[in-house]
Each structure stands twice: as structure tokens, then as C-alpha cells.
Design a protein that fits this description.
The protein is globular and about 60 Å long. It has one domain (about 15-155): Rossmann fold (3-Layer(aba) Sandwich). It has about 170 residues and is of the alpha/beta class. It contains six helices and five strands. Helix 1 (about 25-35) runs parallel beside helix 5 (about 125-140), helix 2 crosses helix 3 and helix 5 (about 125-140) runs antiparallel to helix 6 (about 145-160). The structure holds 5-O-phosphono-beta-D-ribofuranose.
Length: about 170
């Protein structure tokens, strides 16, 4: 008799990015989620080079079990906005630092969404990716008290690590 496997649910956080070249930035979101004990899955999904992959991902993201989407892109950074247009999951946009314009192009492309389709836009680069990880965890912690406790501990550890004096 064939074994019937239970349907596999996705981890709560999807990290999508326009190119493999975005991973050195976006891995900071993944590392932050790891630190907070939140599972994630990362995929390269380009709004321009793989539009069908973007369509398939965004339309199926909720049914797949994802709860939050972190989307990073650089330059003409249409990925977060296009993903947001096709899912009602919260989309956190990370502007990746571009070579030509240092990420100002990415930031403006992501942040200037028309009313009705929000993308929660973070800072350019590593800080934005790290904060996207924290923000995703904060969203999930609204319905997960254990995770909320880990977030509190994370903040306390961060505060304790900031010394008041400039010398040891
Ligand atoms: C965007 O173009 C990507 O998000 C990336 O930041 C940028 C450059 O991509 P590559 O030419 O490095 O693949 O779509």
C-alpha cells in the first residue's frame, strides 16, 4: 500500500530576492531569523528575468503556508511591489545597495508604492535586511508567545551589549 505523506507546509517566512547577487545582503535577514528561532526559505525570484516564477510564487505563497514575505531587490527594484500586488501576506521590502546609485534607486523603487498596495520598506542594505528579519519575527510573535519571549530576550541582550563608556 502506498504511504500517504502529510502535505508539506512552508516555513513561516519566505525570503525572495531578484538575483543571487542579493544574497550577501539578504542573508542578514536569514541569520537574524535563525537567531530568533524562526524558519525561513530563500528563493531567487526576479520580477524582470523570471516573471512567471514571481507570478507562481506570489499567487501561491499564502496557500503554501508562508505568513510573511521578505523581498529584496536592487536597482529597478520592482520585486517587492509586484509580489505585494499578488498576495495579501505582509511584504517587507529591502532595498539592496546598487553599484550605480548606492541603493537610492532601489529605495525609491520600493518605497513609492501607490495607495492600496503596501510594502513595508526597510533601510538600504544590511541594516534593512536585519531589520526585516526582526520585523517578520515581530509579526509572527503577535500569535506566538514563545517567540515574543525570544524577541524580548534578543532586545535585552542587545541593550546589555551597549556600553556607556567609550573605553573598557
Ligand atoms: C535586480 O538587479 C537584483 O535584485 C539585483 O540587485 C540587481 C542586479 O542583478 P544582477 O545583475 O547582479 O543579477 O533585479
Amino acid at each position: 500500500m502506498a504511504t500517504v505523506l502529510p502535505p508539506q507546509s512552508s516555513p513561516p517566512v519566505a525570503i525572495i530576492m531578484g538575483s543571487r547577487s542579493d544574497w550577501p545582503t539578504m542573508k542578514h535577514a536569514a541569520e537574524t531569523l535563525d537567531r530568533l528561532g524562526v524558519a525561513w526559505e530563500a528563493k531567487v525570484v526576479s520580477a524582470h528575468r523570471t516573471p512567471q516564477r514571481l507570478y507562481d510564487f506570489a499567487n501561491g505563497a499564502k496557500a503554501a503556508g508562508f505568513k510573511v514575505v521578505i523581498a529584496g531587490a536592487g536597482g529597478a527594484a520592482h520585486l517587492p511591489g509586484m509580489a505585494a500586488s499578488m498576495t495579501d501576506l505582509p511584504v517587507l521590502g529591502v532595498p539592496v545597495q546598487s553599484k550605480a546609485l548606492s541603493g537610492l534607486d532601489s529605495l525609491l523603487s520600493i518605497v513609492q508604492m501607490p495607495g492600496g498596495i503596501p510594502v513595508a520598506t526597510l533601510a538600504i542594505g544590511e541594516a534593512g535586511a536585519k531589520n526585516a528579519g526582526i520585523l517578520a519575527a515581530q509579526i509572527l510573535a503577535l500569535s506566538d508567545e514563545t517567540l515574543a519571549g525570544r524577541l524580548t530576550a534578543f532586545r535585552e541582550a542587545q541593550t546589555e551589549a551597549v556600553h556607556e563608556t567609550v573605553e573598557d
